[in-house]
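Late entry, evening session. Most of the bench is empty. Finally got around to the prediction I had been postponing all week. Sequence below, unchanged from the version circulated by S.P.
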Amino acid sequence: MLRLFRIDERGNTAALFGILLLAVTGTVGLAVDYGVALGARNRLQDAVDIAALAGAAQKGDARTPAAVAAFQANYDAALTPVVTIEGGTVRVTGTDEVPTSLMMLLGVPTMEIAATSEAMGSAPGPCVVVLSPDGQSVYANSGGGIDADCPVQVNSAHSKAIYLNANSYVKGSEVNVVGKVFQQGQNATITPTPKTGAPVENDPFASLPDPTDASAACDQTSSILLNSGQSLELNPGVYCGNVTLNSNSTITLKPGIYTFRKQVLLNSGSRISGESVLMFLPTSSSELRMNGQANLSLTGMKSGPYAGMVMFQSNTIAAGTYKEMHFNGDANTKLEGVVYLPRTNLWLNGNTNINVSAAYSGLFVGRMNLNAPITIRAYTSGSGTPLAGAASGAGGMVRLSR
């Protein structure tokens, strides 16, 4: 009987099939669940890449929350990555558990995935560039000066490229001058110590074409004159006559590009405002002048080739020609975006306040005469309309390092 039991093979096939089925199920389950986990891991890697770049684009304590917010927006709002800051490098590590399907039958309910990315931010480039290659390019008197939280660049090779009288100042994260500086009188200060003999900073907008052709037809040929609290709303277009505002009058600009071929004059508490606009000054006759508590409040274009730019002067105006632009007598501006005036000698006089309340801006100008302060705050991600792409130095460049 025992001998017959040992040689009886009936039922072996079923047992063997059960064992093989378990092995096949495990193999198929591993392949299926691994594919799902691999896809999730790729999404996780994309998320940490985006987060690292977002963090590196910020400064100081803003880097970690920016990285966390970017990760959660692109992966899972319920998960918080590990963010490590080392010098200029932001490292972001994300982990997650992916539920299994077939592998669950073998007692493996989840698979763990992880991804790490690093990004580096370069030193920010200048957000104030005085472009003239010669002459006293920055001239400041008592109470006048530049207050910037980014590098300041003066391209003039003159022996007094920056000329400061008593109680005037230039302040930036760096101050770089191709030529030399001259300071006289008490409290004429440059912070930090300027670097003289610096290389020229190339004009990032030199090749940017004019937004409207010089031969474009006028949308309005007659001049505009507003008095005694009058108000007007303008559409984008080409304005070929003078625009004058007096006695607390106001103009509101709809989003778009405005070409002003003659003078724009704001007097006596008048105001021009607009969002997502570009003020284009195409000729040597184009001029912006502000007096007597006038106010100019504009934000730059939000899209297109001039995204982030709020004021643009044509490069077709003869080189070496510097049109004087005067902001006088308690004039106040808030220009958020790049102000590009390569053929302008910008005069600030009286109790003028330029950009004190602007969250971010960049200034590229031919020359400056400062009898009043100007404030420049460099763009950081999330502060609104980004600065124009060609002014990438304004916020520094970021790149993945791993």
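Two things to note before I forget:
The CA atoms of residues 49 and 117 lie 5 Å apart.
Residues 380-386, 388-395 have pLDDT under 50 and may be disordered.
Will write this up properly tomorrow.
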